[in-house]
Amino acid sequence: MNTLLSPDELEARLRAIGAERYHRQHPLHKAMYEGRLTKGQLQAWALNRYYYQAQIPRKDATLLARLPTTELRREWRRRIEDHDGTAESPGGIARWLKLTNGLGLDDDYVTSLKGLLPATLFAVDAYVAFVRDRSILAAIASSLTELFSPTIIGERMEGMLRNYPYISEDTLAYFKPRLTQAPQDSTFALNYVKEHARTPEQQREVLGALEFKCAILWQLLDALDHAYVAGHVPPGAFVPETP
Q1: Which of 135, 149, 163, 241 minimizes the number of CB atoms within 10 Å of its CB?
Q2: pTM for the model
Q3: What is the pLDDT of residues 122-155, one digit of tens each?
Q4: Rounded distance between C-alpha atoms, residue 56 and residue 159, angstroms
């Protein structure tokens, strides 16, 4: 792509990437929504996804340190509080532990990270490194998967409550706030990249950043599918109890 896109054309390209590559299309997500996963498979998903959730504030903190304006720092500080919480209110990480706990996993085991798949560690760490090392524009663009997250969150909540009797509204406490937080986050990020991607090179960087983030999320589900659906659990990783 050597032609400068208009801001609206850039947005259309970004949304096309999400339509094609966002992990809502992954077979494991579809199996979860349709009620075809065992409790052990859901435990493995929630356990591994915890590492992604827990690293989001670290990822955002690496970007916060580089942001040049009060407005941008204030925006990214809010994102960190959304996940880390405050003294008055628990954040997304604490709410995710309600999910793992509700699925029968011990909090100490989850937070120890002992049962993670190696691919989970590599993929999530690669995302943190990307945001730390790439340009501010690319780092912000990589967050644009949040454009598509309300749909997948709604599907997860609806499918889990319909198909898994051991899951309750309280178990899914993480998800409801994200239905409003994610659109707020993605609107800010989208407006930023549409304003600041002013050359074909910068626009290619933005598109590549979103493709990279979609690949990270897809890889997380690929690893879970290989280990817990195909049955190739690597040594040291979580092993569900036999029903």
Answers
A1: 241
A2: 0.95
A3: 999 999 999 999 999 999 999 999 999 999 999 9
A4: 25
